[in-house]
Amino acid sequence: MSVWAVLVAAGRGERLGEERPKAFVALGGLPLLAESLRRLDESEWVDGVVVVAPPGWEEPAILLAEELGASKVAACVPGGETRTDSVRAGVAEVPEDAAVIIVHDAARPVLPEDVVGRVIGALGEGFDGAVPALPVADTVKRVVGGVVAETLPRDELVAVQTPQGFVAPVLRAALAAGEGSDCASLVEQNGGRVRIVAGDERLLKVTTRADLERVAGWL
Ligand code: CTP
Ligand code: MG
Q: Is the pTM of this model over 0.85?
């Protein structure tokens, strides 16, 4: 069974507000992209990696992979306008015979190996997809026009992270069918069964300066 990883790093990082795209902002002396790229390349579960870079940043991404000795990187392609477009661009480079595709946000640099193991393990149990998640600490309400429409049952809610793993043909079909804020939602909309596995606090997505400082402390 071959497992391929698509590392999406093509976002602009507008909320971080640096001059360069978020994937190339410094973290521990290297571009932020380096940490997740190295971890995927070193993962015993992963056979090949496709990097989706910000348009115009493919060359620096390839040079970074070479500098890290990331020998599993098979392709580096420019991303699209939305995250889903970027995932599509990356998945298009994954060999047809790949059994599993995991999609990871470069904005989550600290990727623990055991999370990858849990995601792949759930796919081995027959699920179409598997996503790491954490329980939600706050009460969550659905709001319409500033007025509470509903208070959601907290024990049924989770906050999802990446890497999200999928049976490869299931992900390809879902990507052809629609748009969504994460890959799992596309697979769900297409009738796929997605398993939740335990996430990890360290998979924090770097959005702001403060996030960057927190993550730097975990390297
Ligand atoms: N991403 C991508 N292509 C896009 C948008 C996002 O590959 N068109 C990637 C980002 O590089 C990131 C992940 O999807 O690794 C999650 O996106 P987010 O955290 O929102 O990053 P940005 O879109 O870069 O940040 P911002 O929304 O603040 O501009
Ligand atoms: Mg974004």
A: yes
